[in-house]
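On clarity, I found the account of how folds are encoded harder to follow than it need be. Since the whole study asks how a given chain folds, the encoding of that fold should be made plain. For illustration, here is how one protein appears when written out as sequence plus structure tokens:
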Amino acid sequence: MIGVLGLARSGLAAARLAISRGETVYASDGGATPATAKVASVLRELGAQVDEGGHDLERLAACSEIVVSPGIPPGARVLSEPVLAEVPFVSEIEFALRFIDAPAIAVTGTNGKTTVTALIGHLLREAGRDAIEGGNIGTALSEVAMRVPQPEIVVVEASSFQLGRLIEFSPEIGVLTNLAPDHLDRYASVEDYYADKERLFLNATPESRWLTNAEDERARAMAIKAAGKHYWFRIGSAPVSGEEGGYLSTDGWLTLRLDGSEERLIAASELRILGPHNVANALAAAIAAKLAGADSEAIRAGLPTFGALSHRMEPVHQADGVIWINDSKATNISSTRVALRSLEYPVVLLLGGRHKGESYTQLLPEMKDRVRLVVAFGEAADTIVADLATNAEVETVEGSFRDMMDRVGELVRSGDTVLLSPACSSFDMFSDFEERGRRFTELARRETP
């Protein structure tokens, strides 16, 4: 019997995959909501045993292994129950990859991994490859495993929660975009968070190929220890002698540096995605696609046709001289700092949600000369005010997300950019950052009464 912990997207897919392989399944979730009830109903119809609002330890102990969904926090009590000490726990992505007959490119990092994953897939398809993205990007990898026919190549976005339980996975190409503190509401320390990221390199071999941000010292130090061939990308400095990968030339061109030669791709100004961080993301994706076999002409054609992903520096409305940008995916301080660097004064910055343990004072350098007003909302509002009000104009809005957006509508002026880049999780008001971003878009456009 296969156990599955978590009745959300990944848990549902893992259970369906196990059932499709002829396994008996027991699935459970510590919560009981309308969403878990819906999943439970689907799985019961497929023949699974399901519990909501708790876990049957006796059933879990009888399982040959337990698939852990990424939504299960590392410190969840069920993971340390003594009766389960002899039962192996496995990440959903590793469980799924057993049944995917295709090489894998794995992408992780604190920020940018979704954009890089999606752009690699886009470039490979531009090159005529049957590539599909899965993992943390939104499509559970277990869904990909059930696809007929199988893809030619799979691009996996891997979060720290998914990497934390890897045992055997060894990607043909691994990408580390950057490292910064995150998820301190779920990890005891930043070192524990980084340790899970480092598991990307757990099964490195001499044949492994690794692509890493050369300008992020923490990422570089983590990657360089791994066996295999190393490639590097950088946008703010020149490559060192003998370094392979790619860089941004002094005249603004994305440039590959592979096999002892250099090749210019496109000017960064041709990209449709905003900000210097997205120049780095585009360069990383181009290098990874090239290493995976895409030709340069396809990469040149694909880079300028890739648009902003939903909820990631996505312009969603413009009226009366005001631009509204949905960056709801920015659930940590580092992401919001990156977003701010992409914009110029005057910005109305919407911060709030559920606090994740970092100080908002870290935003002050990027806020200076850019942010006209901070609007604080949600559970973290008081902490945001305490951290920022001495050095910035901050207005707190109590009540619903709608109340907050109504007040923003009263505060904005022609020429403002309204940026939802919350630096918090969404779980105080929404089921996920996507729901929050959709609501922001609706209210910015005034599509709902």
